[in-house]
Specification:
about 260 residues, mainly alpha, GMP Synthetase, Chain A, domain 3, 2 domains, 3-stranded mixed beta sheet, 5 strands, FSCA_dom_sf
Length: about 260
């Protein structure tokens, strides 16, 4: 489970007497809806927001940073585009400026996002080369993995508490409510909804990435696979946090906004 502790900006957020604090707060909340697709955590809690400010005339400026200069450009494009979309929904802003900094493909990514050109078009002819597939396919792949990892977070504590595989196979999401961690269950429901998989209380607790119920015979292998995805998320998150801290000289917990 990821706990938001606030961003660690490269410089202080600009707030003049003419800048409504509600707009700044609204931009931060919008950014909390933007996820790193591989880590399944929001860009604020990951400290990927280097700057967030709103000018007196209502222009939002957001600078995103990543752990390394060579982070995957498709992931980077997704996050910048999603941030632009999310911040653009904040009421009261007159314009939005979202850019990626300190990345080898930042120029192409920023130009593509600003022009709403899409990743394939933006990367054509660049040093990144031709994209093989559109980003929506990549997004679904990582959302499926996030759903599997979320299944592990919800089911593993139940198994540790003595719930048998047979009982797990017959459980619904409603059965897990009040037993599983609330945030983990909420996130699992959210990922399932993103994939078009039923996520109400009557829906089976354990399903495969296309929504099919997992039977008792397939349950052990399915749960091991779910565990492997969560281990991968934990390991990659730890590596990325360490790289980001080393790159930008971050120390201690992230600072609260403002």
């Amino acid at each position: 489970m990821t706990t938001d502790t606030g961003p660690a900006p490269l410089r202080s957020v600009s707030r003049t007497s003419d800048t409504p604090a509600t707009l700044v707060a609204g931009v931060w909340e919008a950014l909390r809806t933007v996820r790193d697709p591989e880590l399944d955590a929001d860009v604020v809690s990951l400290d990927f927001v280097a700057e967030c400010s709103v000018t007196p005339d209502g222009i939002a400026h957001v600078r995103l940073r990543l752990p390394t200069y060579f982070c995957a450009p498709n992931f980077a494009f997704l996050m910048v585009a999603d941030a632009w979309d999310a911040v653009s929904q904040v009421e009261g802003l007159t314009d939005v400026d979202v850019v990626l900094i300190d990345h080898f493909a930042s120029d192409a990514i920023n130009q593509g996002v600003a022009a709403r050109a899409g990743f394939v078009h933006s990367m054509a002819g660049s040093e990144v080369g031709e994209a093989v597939e559109e980003l929506h396919e990549l997004r679904r792949t990582f959302t499926e993995r996030a759903m599997m990892a979320g299944t592990d977070l919800v089911v593993r504590p139940l198994v540790r508490a003595g719930t048998t595989p047979e009982e797990v196979a017959g459980m619904t999401l409603g059965d897990a409510a009040g037993i599983a961690d609330t945030d983990d269950l909420r996130r699992l429901r959210a990922r399932r909804r993103e994939l078009g998989i039923p996520a109400d209380d009557d829906a089976p607790l354990v399903v495969d990435p296309v929504g099919r119920t997992v039977g008792i015979d397939a349950m052990p292998l399915h749960l091991r696979k779910a565990r492997s995805y969560q281990v991968g998320v934990d390991a990659n998150t730890s590596i990325c946090r360490g790289q980001l801290a080393a790159r930008y000289g971050l120390t201690g917990p992230a600072a609260a906004e403002g």
